[in-house]
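STRUCTURE:
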């Protein structure tokens, strides 16, 4: 049974995770809890957990430093990050290549259990032997080789996420070096196809998430690949063509449709969206988006998002069974003092005054 360690300085937050996780169904057990990063690192050595769920804002060793230490000391550990809205997007980009999933507080039970299931799946693939869909094992000589393969896989994805052609080329070159060193006698065609499809499925998922139409050329198990270089040449071509497609969209999509942007915000304003993420979705610079949105709507884009959230918070506060803290969490604010300031600035009234019906 895989072991889980929960790290959060708020006891109530740890209790929420304990309550929402479907531990028995997933074949997991909570091995321990820590209230800061320093204690968490000690328990990792002592308990040897397989999965760590950690908050980002903690006293002492905070989440960012903790992830750095985990990456250096426990490279096989699966990490699920929990974060409030205020620092969520920054942290997501900063640590994207290391964590398995990123959960926005308040934690959604479906997202939590899906993240745990994803960790279990990745733990399974980290074993010394990886089974292919053709019942042909991709066997690594030792766990260390498997670990290096998984790490290189993460580096390739990070390079793709940054749309960096040089970084993609360098990461794939390192992957080729690893595979050649791991299999000095050469790899069977089916195994080459498995490795190639693994990396191309990463690309396919990335393009789907960014809603960019792109035909990925998967490597067939029947393909007669001569060597690792031949298989990775196909992977490289797909990655570079995908990056070119996105760059072309960014260059050619010079007419920004603000009604589409507004509609997107209206549907997703409770999610961790920012000026930067919206600009990326519509393939424009954040400066251009900010300028055109303000000119068209008459309101700053960030202020528009905040207003939508505050209006939703006011609706929640008028419901008798919802507390101020719950309303703040449900609209993405983990710090009550900050929520109070933003709310009063928006309406001229405190959340408590609105809750009591003062007009």
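SEQUENCE:
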């Amino acid at each position: 049974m895989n072991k889980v360690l929960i790290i959060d300085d708020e006891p109530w937050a740890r209790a929420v995770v304990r309550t929402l996780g479907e531990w028995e169904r997933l074949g997991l057990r909570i091995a321990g809890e820590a209230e800061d990063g320093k204690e968490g690192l000690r328990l990792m050595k002592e308990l040897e957990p397989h999965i760590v769920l950690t908050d980002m804002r903690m006293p002492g060793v905070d989440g960012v430093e903790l992830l750095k230490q985990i990456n250096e000391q426990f490279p096989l550990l699966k990490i699920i990050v929990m974060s409030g809205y205020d620092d969520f997007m920054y942290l997501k980009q900063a640590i994207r290549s290391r964590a398995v999933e990123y959960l926005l507080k308040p934690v959604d039970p479906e997202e939590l259990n899906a993240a745990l299931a994803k960790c279990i799946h990745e733990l399974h693939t980290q074993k010394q032997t990886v089974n292919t869909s053709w019942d042909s094992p991709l066997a690594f000589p030792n766990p260390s080789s498997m670990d290096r393969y998984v790490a290189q896989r993460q580096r390739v994805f990070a390079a793709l996420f940054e749309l960096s052609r040089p970084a993609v080329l360098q990461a794939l070159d390192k992957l080729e070096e690893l595979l050649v060193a791991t299999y000095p006698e050469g790899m069977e065609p089916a195994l080459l196809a498995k490795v190639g499809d693994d990396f191309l499925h990463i690309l396919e998922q990335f393009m789907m998430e960014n809603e960019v139409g792109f035909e990925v050329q998967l490597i067939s198990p029947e393909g007669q690949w001569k060597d690792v270089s031949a298989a990775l040449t196909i992977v490289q071509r797909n990655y570079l063509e995908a990056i070119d497609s996105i760059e072309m969209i960014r260059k050619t999509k010079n007419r920004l449709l603000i009604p589409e942007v507004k509609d997107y915000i209206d549907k997703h304003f409770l999610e961790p969206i920012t000026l930067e993420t919206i600009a990326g979705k519509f393939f424009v610079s954040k400066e251009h988006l900010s300028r055109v949105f303000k000119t068209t709507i008459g309101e700053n884009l960030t202020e528009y998002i905040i207003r939508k959230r505050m209006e939703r918070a006011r609706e929640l506060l008028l419901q008798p069974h919802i507390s101020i803290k719950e309303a703040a969490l449900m609209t993405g604010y983990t710090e009550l003092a900050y929520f109070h300031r933003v709310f009063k600035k928006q309406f001229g009234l405190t959340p408590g005054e609105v809750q009591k019906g003062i007009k």
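REMARK: Residues 88 and 187 are 42 Å apart (CA to CA).
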